[in-house]
Amino acid sequence: MDGFEPQIPIAPQSKTLPRMWLIGGAVLILVIAVVVIVLVVRGRSGGADETATVLKQAEATCAGDLNPDVCKAQTLSDLAQSSGYVEACDSLSADDYDQCVWGAAREQGKPEWCNTLKNREYVTLCKDGTYLAMAKNTGDQKICEKITDEGTKSSCINIILGPVNGKNCTSRGLPEGICRIYAMIDTAVASHDASKCPVIPDDSLRFLCLDLVGSVGETEESLDTDGDGLTDAEEARYKSDPKKADTDADGFSDGEEVRNGYNPAGPGRLETAPR
Questions:
Q1: What residue numbers bound the domain in which 204 lies?
Q2: Domain tally for the chain?
């Protein structure tokens, strides 16, 4: 065994960072985390202070009002709508909060604010109403395509482009056969002749023809002053305003709300609405 030299095993090179590097990295991460937390807390406390100030001002404004709670809700809602300071709604009760945020979203063109509504049934309605208002304000038909409810989307497009008739039908991209029917409807309405309607092959357009011809000479009983789809008599029953197409200013006409089961004079469904 002479000449044999035992091999001394060599420790494998460590693949981990040196201990001091690890400690230094941990300290750096901790420092960064502390700085971020401080900045976030400062930002939040500033927002809370501003909200508290706004709330105090609203309470002071409404102190002598006969109904200070209603006054405060209206004051904060007006502020949120006019300035976009939606945090002003935060101190309100659930229903008032939803109305406040809904109005602010519509006026400021912020459909994403609708996601914070307490009543989740209102979220889609709020967004659709906001998109409808945005389309009206800008005249941009593309915004109508973001609306979920097909009836509201159709109304939106009609508001931008005007109702379909025989003259604009082709430019709206509708089939030639449908456009011929709209031309027939125009003729029936112009001549006040309902006898021209039954020959229309499409059921919905035939009923539209009859409705339009019938509305030409509508009586006092069927009068719809604001054109929202509810007669003045129906407006009285639902306690909505016969001279305002959208009594509660939520972006949906009174007629649309009733057809979808909602109270046209305020929040809630019809089963909870005053009769």
A1: 164-217
A2: 2
